[in-house]
Design brief:
mainly alpha, 18 helices
C-alpha cells in the first residue's frame, strides 16, 4: 500500500511538472522574455539590480517597494540576463509541482488515498496555477510556502503532544517566509499561530511554541527593518506599498480594480520619498473611507465578485474555451468544497464515527480563504488573489470523497 501511495504521488508530481513546464516553454516560444504585468517588471528590476549593483532597489529608486523573499528568489537567476527569466519560470514550474506533491501527501495523511488522489489531481490540473507559473509574480512561491505551512500545522492541531519538534520549527519558518513574501499574509499567519495555541491543552507547551513562532518572525523581519531604517529613514517592517494599494482600492477613483495612474497625478505626492508618499496615501485613503462608509461596503461587494469571479476579469482571457474551462473548473471545485464542508458539519456525520480531526482540517483550510477574501474586500479585488487560496479549496473539495474508513486512517497516521 505504501509503495502504491508513493507511486501515485510521484505520478502526480510528474504530470504537474510536465504541464507547467510545457506551458512555460509554449509561452516562451511566442513571447520570449516579455512581461505581461507591471509587477513582473518591478520584481525583475529588484532582482537584477541586486545582482548587478548589490542593492535591492527598483529602477525608480524604491528600496522597500516589495518584500524581499521573492526578489531574492529571482536573483538566483538574474545573472543570466533574459535567459534567467526562462530559468526562473521553469523553477516556478518545479515549485508548482512540489506544491502538488505536498498537497497529495498532506491529504493522504489527513483523508486517505482516494481523497488524496482527488486533491492532488485538482491542484495538478488547476488552470490558474498553471497559468501563473509563467508570470514573475509572487503567487507560485507564496502558494508553496502557504501549503507547506498548513501541512506542517496539521500534526500540531490534531495531536499537539505527539507532534514532532520539526513541525513547530517548520510552522515558524514557513510562516515567516510567507510574510516575507506577501505582507498581507501577516494576519493569517498570526491567526493560524493563535489557533494552534488554542488547540493545545497544555498551556506551557503551547505558549513555548507560540514564543518560538514569534521569535523566528522577529529574527527574519529585524534585518529587513534595520536595512530599511538605514536606506530610507524608516523601518518599514513590511513594505512601503500598503498606503499605495489602500488608496488604489479606496481613493475617489477606486472602482474595485487596480489603476495606479494617480501616482503621477496627485500634486501632493510630488517630491515625497517612498515612506512619506506611502503614509500620505494611507491617510488620504482612510479619510475617504471615513467620509463615505457606504461606498466602502459597495466597493467590498464589487471586489468580492472580482476575486471569486468564475471567469477571468481580463477581457483577453474571458471568452472562448479558456473562459468556459476556467468557469467549469472553479464551479465544480467550489461545489465539492462546500459538499465536503457540509458533510463534515452535517447532522448525518455527527456520530462517533465522525472524527474531530476532519473539522480541524476544515478550520485550517477555510481560515486563509476567509481571511484573504476579507482583506481583498478592503484592498484590490482580483482573480489573482484567489489563486493562492485554490489549493485549500481543492483539499476541502477532496473531503467530499472521505469515507468512514478514513477514521482508521486518521487515527493511525495522525
Amino acid at each position: 500500500m505504501k509503495l502504491k501511495t508513493t507511486g501515485l504521488g510521484v505520478a502526480i508530481f510528474a504530470v504537474a511538472l510536465l504541464l507547467r513546464a510545457a506551458w512555460v516553454l509554449l509561452r516562451w516560444s511566442k513571447t520570449g522574455a516579455a512581461f505581461e504585468f507591471p509587477d513582473e517588471e518591478l520584481h525583475w528590476q529588484l532582482a537584477r539590480n541586486l545582482v548587478n549593483e548589490g542593492a535591492l532597489v527598483s529602477d525608480a529608486g524604491r528600496y522597500a517597494a516589495r518584500m524581499p523573499v521573492y526578489p531574492l528568489f529571482l536573483a538566483l537567476f538574474a545573472w543570466a540576463g533574459e535567459t534567467g527569466i526562462l530559468i526562473a519560470r521553469l523553477a516556478q514550474a518545479l515549485l508548482g509541482a512540489l506544491t502538488t506533491w505536498i498537497v497529495y501527501s498532506f491529504a493522504n495523511k489527513a483523508l486517505g488515498r482516494r481523497a488524496a488522489l482527488v486533491a492532488g489531481a485538482l491542484v495538478c490540473l488547476d488552470p490558474y496555477t498553471i497559468f501563473f507559473t509563467n508570470l514573475l509574480l509572487t503567487e507560485v512561491l507564496f502558494i508553496f510556502f502557504a501549503v507547506t505551512l498548513t501541512a506542517c500545522a496539521w500534526p500540531l492541531i490534531t495531536d499537539p503532544a505527539k507532534a514532532p519538534r520539526a513541525a513547530a520549527w517548520s510552522v515558524a519558518v514557513f510562516g515567516a517566509a510567507a510574510i516575507m513574501t506577501r505582507p498581507s499574509a501577516v494576519g493569517w499567519v498570526l491567526l493560524l499561530w493563535i489557533v494552534l495555541w488554542l488547540f493545545d491543552s497544555t498551556r506551557v507547551r503551547a505558549t513555548r511554541r507560540l514564543a518560538l513562532y514569534l521569535a523566528v518572525m522577529i529574527v527574519c523581519l529585524l534585518p529587513w527593518g534595520l536595512r530599511n531604517h538605514f536606506v530610507i529613514g524608516a523601518p518599514a517592517w513590511l513594505s512601503t506599498n500598503g498606503g499605495v494599494t489602500l488608496y488604489d482600492a479606496q481613493g475617489p477613483q477606486a472602482d474595485g480594480g487596480s489603476n495606479q495612474a494617480f501616482l503621477n497625478e496627485l500634486p501632493q505626492l510630488a517630491g515625497l520619498g517612498e515612506v512619506r508618499r506611502d503614509r500620505e496615501l494611507r491617510r488620504l485613503a482612510i479619510e475617504q473611507m471615513r467620509s463615505n462608509p457606504t461606498r466602502v461596503l459597495r466597493l467590498a461587494w464589487v471586489k468580492f465578485r472580482r476575486t471569486w469571479n468564475p471567469v477571468p476579469n481580463v477581457s483577453d482571457y474571458r471568452g472562448g474555451i479558456t473562459g468556459l474551462a476556467s468557469a467549469a473548473f472553479t464551479a465544480v471545485t467550489l461545489l465539492l468544497a462546500f459538499v465536503g464542508l457540509f458533510r463534515t458539519l452535517g447532522k448525518k456525520n455527527s456520530d462517533a464515527a465522525k472524527p474531530h480531526r476532519l473539522r480541524r482540517l476544515h478550520l485550517l483550510l477555510w481560515l486563509p480563504v476567509i481571511y484573504f477574501t476579507l482583506v481583498h474586500c478592503v484592498f484590490i479585488g482580483s482573480l489573482r488573489y484567489r489563486v493562492p487560496l485554490m489549493p485549500f479549496i481543492e483539499i476541502a473539495a477532496a473531503t467530499a470523497f472521505w469515507e468512514k474508513r478514513g477514521q482508521e486512517l486518521l487515527t493511525r497516521r495522525c
